[in-house]
């Protein structure tokens, strides 16, 4: 009886631990997703990279705009000078000073570079758009992970509930066996057998509670908050009506985030080919400036000299033989484009295969779900009948144990099928590029 009191205390502790969660606020899936998107370091880094790409996407960075610079030089010298003139005169000066000032404002502009600047600007536009698409993919991936973990917690929570029901049924059976022993219609063996069942359920319940806590820590980490934050999840597992396989495949080819990134890579490769071809054309440069020069000398032919005014010029250059680098650059750019095309074709084939497998699994799970729901109804009726027969002495405790075990297994299978179907649904949506938030 002492061991039974210990078991009762343990069960009371387990009940308090599990039921304590119900006093906490329910964390909805939408709240988990919103918090995760706001706090994710990966998303914040992606947004920073997106801003960097936006800052780099300028006409100046593409080479459209001129470069304007200015210079100013002031020089002073002190020297001993001896000058002999053609007339025979001689001039001498000790410590003669010379001052020189030169300033200027200059403009250099590449007016034509073989259309390279247009290709560069197009590439910068695409890189900015690609960075935005990359951020959307990062958000999509995070939402997928959060949903998987969230419904994993729902699944474990259901397992805990099922184990609690099994534990309560076995406790009732234990109390009944103990009562029969006291009135002489039962045996000590039956009491020990039911006690073993209670102990086994208690141990399994402890393990499941530990799994539940670990899963909650993982979700808290994904949400970017304190891992020890206490919460409970909504027990609902809503089912969504999905498009058929052909529609899902078409959506995946059009909307899958990895496909979109490869499409941007393909367009960027085309701009790189345009950039490589630009060296086949001459380059036209225009320069203009305004100069101001002033000099003053204490000895010499002129005491001072000043000149100022604008200047303008144009230059044309053409690289006649660049060491065969043009062909190499063009070949490499073309090969890069081919690699992107091959990667996209491979990805599309993988998507078709993965969608077909997942969709087949999804349909099979729908049928299995309906079957397991009917099995649960049958198992509950069987357990109820077995307990009634045991009370009247027309069934053994072995019959009741088998009924309880069957009911527990059937309910666990139903929970597992619901979870697997939901995860399969999430995977199908994720591959098809269907928004998950």
Question: Would you give an account of this structure?
Answer:
This protein has 437 residues and is of the alpha+beta class. The chain has one domain (2-39, 113-282, 318-432): Outer membrane efflux proteins (OEP) (Up-down Bundle), CATH 1.20.1600. Helix content is 66%, strand content 17%. It has ten helices and six strands. The strands form two sheets. It has a four-stranded antiparallel sheet with strand order 2-3-5-6, with no helix packed on it. Strands 1-4 form a two-stranded parallel ribbon. The longest helix has 68 residues, at 116-183. The two termini are 55 Å apart. The model is unreliable at 1-5 and 14-22 (pLDDT under 50).
List the helices and strands and how they pair.
Elements (H helix, E strand, L loop, with lengths): L1 H19 L5 E2 L1 H11 L1 H16 L2 H4 L4 E18 L5 E23 L3 H68 L4 H35 L9 E2 L11 H11 L1 H21 L5 E15 L6 E14 L7 H67 L5 H36 L5
Parallel strand pairs: 1-4
Antiparallel strand pairs: 2-3, 3-5, 5-6
Helix pairs in contact: 1-6, 2-5, 3-5, 5-6, 5-8, 5-10, 7-9, 7-10, 8-9, 9-10
What class do helices, strands and sheet pairing give? alpha+beta
**Tally of strands:** 6
Q: Order of helices and strands, N to C?
A: HEHHHEEHHEHHEEHH
Percent of residues in helical segments?
Answer: 55-70%
CATH third-level topology: Outer membrane efflux proteins (OEP)
The CATH architecture is Up-down Bundle
Query: How many structural domains does the protein architecture include?
Result: 1
Tell the overall outline: elongated
What is the CATH class designation?
Mainly Alpha
Low-confidence residue ranges: 1-5, 14-22
